[in-house]
Design brief:
With 464 residues, the chain is of the alpha/beta class. Helix content is 37%, strand content 16%. The longest helix has 22 residues. The protein is globular, with a radius of gyration of 22 Å. Bound molecules: pyridoxal-5'-phosphate (PLP). The site of pyridoxal-5'-phosphate has 17 residues, from helix 5.
């Protein structure tokens, strides 16, 4: 590996050519007051949830950290869900929450939609775990190939992580090159996270790291190492990275730089595919070489997929000279294939996705207006947004590194106190089940929470 390849470290390349951002961060009045407020919020939360507390403690004996999905963990312990319906979660202590997290986008349909329940029942009647091929797989593949401009052919996986690992491996095979260009702060799955700290939990490819929304850093990397770079893996909007949209010019230039350098452009649309029936790529008019999908497109079942032009996907087809195999016991599991097809056909039409996108745009501007007086903001696109403890411009995750994490923690608990569930890091994914009344309730809870934090002397109203 050449020394110029940066593996698992934030980009230290050339200075950004455009827009080093200076954000205005919200501030706490006093360190001790903020620490005391966090401790009090945790105490209050725990006292009200004895059943969740007992279940969390028992679970931690057999599950490290008491669960098996790290992102769901929060202090002092995550509540345990007893049941869910529509936009509501009810925990084992009887607290009800409006679900603004939407299972980190996998829950786009809301909880228990009847069309999905019916599709599940049909599978239960017909049989599952077939160890053979059934036509549901073809149905779902046809529906998705018809939707996404870049996808002529597709293959299924069990997760978005796996879809990205397969797409990267396919790109390396197709180009005969090794390196994978990614962006600082990007999350493409459990084994594909590119945060500031080094981690041993990372698929061991030789990575080249660039800065999101900084085309100069990409141009430089391609000039230096282009002949060794197989692919650029990018989300059209960084989701886990803070709902930071890729600027249209950045993504368009990325497309043309990749074409010029013979590098495959992979759009990770695991989250952004909801932006229209053809995903973010359709909305932006930028067509990648490969696309990866996941989350809600399996109707709430375990799902992932990667696809692209027939000529590239031929690598998996021996009849067309392909030499790659793609294993996976559950790749074509009937539950996901059948339920996914029913969800796409019956619930995810253009009208539904357009309306959700518009709703999200309107909601984000209301949330942003409520946050502005305290120096906070809402970033995002369509129905995905993140509450940031700073005001923009926020163009890449590094812009908000170092903002006081206690503010997010306090706001998260204040919202839980008011029966609103979002991610601890401020991430929100609207589902189709969220009503106008739910949106109003969120806004009222947010304004009330900010008032409380200001009155308690924790949060200082911004003067900028
Ligand atoms: C953009 C993106 N890519 C990939 C993944 C990984 O998907 P999965 O959790 O299904 O492995 C995620 C998950 O949050 C994601 O947000």
């Amino acid at each position: 590996m050449s020394e110029s390849v940066i593996v698992n470290r934030p980009s230290t390349g050339p200075a950004p050519t455009s827009g080093t951002c200076r954000v205005v961060a919200a501030t706490v009045a006093d360190d001790r007051v903020a620490d005391d407020a966090v401790a009090a919020a945790h105490r209050r939360y725990a006292e009200r949830r004895p059943n969740s507390a007992a279940q969390a403690a028992a679970a931690a004996r057999v599950l490290p950290a008491g669960s098996t999905r790290s992102v769901l963990d929060f202090d002092p312990f995550p509540f345990r869900v007893a049941r869910a319906s529509g936009s509501e979660l009810v925990d084992v202590d009887g607290h009800s929450y409006v679900d603004f997290l939407g299972d980190y986008t996998a829950g786009l349909l809301g909880h228990n939609p009847p069309a999905v329940a019916e599709a599940v029942r049909r599978v239960l009647e017909r049989g599952w775990s077939l160890g053979a091929v059934a036509d549901d797989e073809h149905r779902l593949a046809s529906l998705l190939c018809d939707r996404f401009p870049s996808v002529d052919q597709i293959r299924f996986t069990n997760s978005g992580t796996e879809a990205n690992l397969m797409a990267i491996s396919l790109a390396r095979h197709h180009t005969g090159r090794d390196r994978v260009l990614v962006f600082d702060g990007a999350y493409h799955g459990g084994l594909l996270y590119f945060g500031a700290a080094a981690t041993p939990i990372q698929a061991p490819y030789p990575y080249v790291r660039c800065r999101f929304n900084d085309i100069g850093s990409v141009r430089q990397a391609l000039a230096d190492q282009g002949s060794e770079i197989a692919c650029v893996l990018v989300e059209p909007m960084m989701g886990s990275g803070g709902c930071i949209p890729g600027e249209p010019d950045f993504l368009a230039e990325l497309r043309s730089l990749c074409s010029d350098a013979g590098v495959l452009l992979i759009f990770d649309e695991v989250m952004t595919s909801r932006m229209s029936t053809g995903g973010a790529q359709q909305r932006l008019g930028v067509v990648p070489d490969l696309t990866t999908l996941g989350k809600y497109l399996g109707g709430g079942m375990t799902f992932g997929a990667f696809g692209g032009p027939a000529a590239i996907m031929a690598a998996f087809d021996p009849a067309r000279g392909g030499t790659l195999t793609h294993g996976g016991t559950f790749n074509n599991n009937v539950m996901t294939m059948s339920v996914g097809a029913a969800a796409v056909e019956q619930l995810l039409g253009a009208g539904a996705l357009e309306a959700l996108f518009d709703r999200g745009e309107g909601f984000r501007s209301r949330v942003d207006a409520a946050l502005a007086p305290v120096g906070m903001s809402a970033t995002g696109w369509g129905s995905l947004l993140t509450v940031q403890a700073a005001r923009g411009p926020i163009r890449r995750p590094g812009d908000v590194q170092g903002v006081d994490s206690r503010l997010g923690e306090l706001l998260f608990h204040a919202m839980l106190d008011r029966g609103v569930y979002l991610a601890r890091r401020g991430f929100i994914a609207l589902s189709l089940a969220i009503s106008d009344a739910d949106l109003d309730r969120f806004l009222a809870a947010l304004e009330d929470s900010l008032d409380e934090l200001t009155t308690d002397g924790v949060l200082v109203a911004s003067t900028s």
